Recover the amino acids of this structure.
């Protein structure tokens, strides 16, 4: 009788361990730099990764009609073109740190999520009565 319970317990523990490790392995998202990816692209094939680096100067292209954003991520060694849809380029600029989550499609990285480092300064919201142009000017001055 005790053997039956022990076998049942081991089966349950084994099933829980399999589900926990299997689910964890499928949900991991690796963070890589462009040069790390270039060393072994096959390692990251068909995997969701986070590609990090700097936005290469002069590479930001945005189409407001299709909301398609194109830019190049670099780590100073390797440059990787990125395509992302839906994020306006006003949120980041040249030589700014960026992390793009997505997958490679050939030599182009197709971004699904865009993480951007912003300044850590807080500015109080403008008082009532400002025009939209004055608000834009305040925002530009804060950058």
């Amino acid at each position: 009788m005790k053997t039956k319970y022990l076998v049942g317990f081991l089966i349950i523990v084994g099933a829980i361990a399999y589900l926990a490790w299997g689910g964890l392995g499928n949900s991991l998202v690796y963070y890589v730099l462009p040069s790390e990816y270039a060393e072994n692209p096959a390692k990251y094939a068909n995997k969701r990764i986070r590609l990090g680096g700097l936005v290469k100067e002069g590479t930001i292209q945005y189409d407001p009609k299709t909301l398609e954003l194109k830019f190049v991520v670099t780590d100073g060694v390797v440059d990787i073109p990125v395509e992302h849809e839906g994020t306006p380029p006003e949120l980041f600029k040249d030589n700014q740190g960026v992390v793009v989550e997505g997958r490679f499609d050939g030599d182009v990285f197709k971004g699904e999520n865009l993480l951007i480092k912003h300044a850590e300064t807080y500015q109080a919201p403008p008082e009532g009565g400002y025009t939209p142009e004055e608000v834009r000017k305040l925002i530009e001055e804060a950058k």
User: Anything to note?
Assistant: Residues 72 and 81 are 4 Å apart (CA to CA). The chain has two domains: 1-28, 33-142. The two ends are 73 Å apart (CA to CA).
